[in-house]
Amino acid sequence: MTAPRPDLxxxxxxxxxxxxxxxxxxLLCQGADPNAxxxxxxxxxCIAVAGFDHESADALTDAGADPAAALPDGTTPLLRAVDLGxxxxxxxxxxDNTVRRLSEAARGRLLDLARHWxxxxxxxxxxxxxxxxxxxxxxxxxxxxxxxEEVSLAGHIVRAGFLAVLTxxxxxFAIATPMSELVARASPHxxxxxxxxxxxxxxxxxxxxxxAQAWSELKTLRDHxxxxxxxxxxxxxxxxALRAYWxxxxxxxxxxxxxFDWALDETDGMVLARLLEVYGEAQHPDQEAVGLLYAxxxxxxxxxxxxxxxxxxxxxxxxxxxxxxDDIADALLALSRDPDAEVRYATAGELAAHFTPAFRxxxxxxxxxxxxxxxxxxxxxxxxxxxxxxxxxxxxxxxLDEDDLLLRLEIVxxxxxxxxxxxxxxxxxxxxxxVGFDLVEDHRVLAYWDYQRRHRPAExx
Length: 461
Known about the structure:
By secondary structure, this protein is mainly alpha-helical. It has helices spanning 6-17, 21-29, 45-50, 54-62, 77-84, 87-93, 96-101, 104-120, 122-130, 162-172, 179-186, 197-207, 212-219, 227-247, 255-265, 269-279, 287-294, 300-303, 306-311, 314-318, 326-336, 341-353, 357-366, 372-384, 390-397, 405-417, 423-428, 443-455; strands at 137-142, 147-153, 156-159. Helix 6 packs parallel to helix 10 (162-172), helix 21 crosses helix 22 (341-353) and helix 22 packs parallel to helix 24 (372-384).
């Protein structure tokens, strides 16, 4: 076996310090030692941990770095990650192999540290450790699919995801935390506009629970007077469905019927909106009826979910090439004129899915919508149809002046598919594509190259 090259280790340290994840991956592929020591004598994994760099930490552990390696100060990279409060970082370090190797004492130490942070609070613990008296700085940062608050004080930074860290540790260590405790951890962190890490960890842990007794306990949240508890249940059911798809779980067969019954009774707009979003992915035969029931709901959050209830699972609902019923068509047309821009945006794609002359006219109106997001959504939807009439292509060309590079690229795609002679002009008006844009795989670019091959073969790529 060839020994790792010293120069690779030096370059790996530099890449980790710069958070250059691409170079980290490339260097590991070239044979860089994932357990190499940095100049401070610590494993390079500690650089990723200290920088909250979960992507590099993941790459290092996949390559063989040891999250449980004993460090000179008696800690481990995993313990340091727990002490920083980043749930995503801890999750990537706590893989199955590491969990199997952790002693009971090591597990207890991790759990005790996470519990201490939860009980003390991020700012108070930082103040205790540093002796600082000034106010801490706080900002929201994005992790993988979630967000969490970052707290800075006297040069020390942690992320206040300790409840999520504790939940993750308990779940990986097969500790059956009571449902009431997981709900209590999640409830204060429900954010309508983003997914907080503490919320996410709780609903994911609850969705892992199997068996009739666990499901019976979960269902009691449906009748909880606090709507946040009911939203949590909707997220749990969504996660159960996802796990059933990926891991062939067979204990979720009746979840769709449960969602249907619940949807008929739910009165809170926030809860109903999330419930319908989850129900819309369930392929339940009564989705159309539920959609018609709530198409005129006063809460726009609810109306935003209605178009998807009409057009999911198209072959199963309508059969090939069959248009929607008159009631559904009328509802979609009404939604396309909704005062809420997000409702109009959600409707555009469904109008294109069952293209009729009336739906085409509605999309042509939406292409001129005052909201730029709606215009873009309508253009993409219109371009996805097979309609080649001048009304459609001319409408798309008018949007080449929009200050949206990706929309202009979508118009290139639509024109190229139609062999429209204005394709070259549209391509020239796209502008410089972003750094790292995948020219080889992007379907819109490929459509333009195909257009070139058909019309200008000598100049095609």
